[in-house]
Protein 1
Amino acid sequence: MTMVKKPFFYIANWKMNLHFHAAVSFCAENYEALLALAEQEGSYLILCPSYIAIEHVNNMFRDTTISIGAQNCSEHNQGAYTGEVSAQSLAEIGCRYVLVGHSERRNIYQETDDSVLQKIMRSLEHSLRPIICIGETQDEREKNLTYDALGRQLEAVCRLLATYPSSDISKSIFFAYEPVWAIGTGLVPTAEEVQQVCLWIKKTVQQYEIPFRAYVLYGGSVNGDTAPDLKKAEGVNGFLIGSASIDFQTLRKIVLS
Ligand code: PGA
């Protein structure tokens, strides 16, 4: 009997690390190789360029298995919100995923749990799959408050998701466990710790009986060296990859690990 490989999602969060031309060159120079990675059995590759490059990158990968995501969206539908980008605009230009509540948004731009909820609602209204980022700080970890922090961030989100109609069951929602202390630091939890937390997130989400298929990702210093071990963690359905995703050879190493 042939075993079907479980899906594993690789979400490349380019942050503001690749400017427009660099993002387009990355895709052009590695075009065939990126397609080959996305064609690995069970592998799903999702590229999240900055807003300005989304449409261009999406056009490059039209009719391929590579999908495009945004790094953020507005919590509002429409109106006088200078500088914001709506979920509807993202959907109109071919975006299929959106990161919500990344710790850089929460810390640098003071995003609150409430704005995270609004953004989830906006993205679902426009059929974007939200990738909801949660994670504990170094201080919370040291005080053994990891599960309190995660539980707090999950509660309102799951309560909201539970209010959606059960016909939404075919839609996917992603929870990205990103310990704040592991993002961009080179520090990573052990595979056992990641497994424990990701299984806990799955169990917690299940308790709310949300009518969505929920996947749990890990993010924070995933690179060519840390990926093989982290991949062994049960309950992890993929990686959210920051700085390592802007180097094609490193991204390749992560996918093939
Ligand atoms: P990193 O970032 O891989 O550079 O640690 C991850 C993220 O912020 O999503």
Protein 2
Amino acid sequence: MHIDIHEDQLAAVRSLAGSIAEGIRQAAREGRHYVLGLATGASPIGLYEELIRLHRSEGLSFAGVVTFNLDEYYGLPPEDPNSYHEFMRSRFFSQVDLPLDQTHLPGGLVARDQVQHHCDAYEAMIDEAGGIDLQILGIGRTGHIGFNEPPSPKDSRTRLVTLDPVTRIDAAPAFSGLDHVPTEAITMGVSTILRSRRIVLMAWGERKAEIVRKALHDPAGPELPASFLRDHSDVTFLLDQAAASRLEAQT
Ligand code: F6R
């Protein structure tokens, strides 16, 4: 478990983007795809901007990258402005040379009786791609990773979940009101995330300080899904000073 604290978010994402670029180039030298697990929301926006900058200024190519996103709201079509499909298209995929057929997100419009099959197929696609080299995460104020809300068991797999009221309240401004926020999502499970070879959880700002402290120091268990990350052999909490401000070593 590494805790990597930077002066600010920009310094943090520059360091992570540099290590992703190195991973991509290394995989290319070895003649294999680099498999990247992606997140949406506010936390990874700066990282995507930095990766786009590296693409434009240094010619970093994503042609050999395969991506799997953590989650998608259930009930939203891919073209909905609030869907994670649209988020990824507009903020990252359309701005680099990543072939769209190498990108994957759970579907928002899968028929209810097809959801189990869809989720099993998503897990299988990750395995067929060789597993995830690096999974990027944010953390919700409920302690969720992906949309694994409490309680989420350590062995949970990709599945349809009900969103926590706190998560829906946090999403309400983007949806112009709580009533429009979906109540469900399809998310990779905790075990799906933990199968990744390397995991980096990003958290910025004072608003995340308390849940970061809990994820690192409170008793681990299904009521605090992010706490399961502590069991992984290569996980980094990438923080700015404000998000790290309540950690025990600092108080
Ligand atoms: C998004 C996701 C969520 C977010 C979390 C934090 O794909 O899986 O776990 O990472 O809700 O959201 P932000 O970054 O908006 O604070």
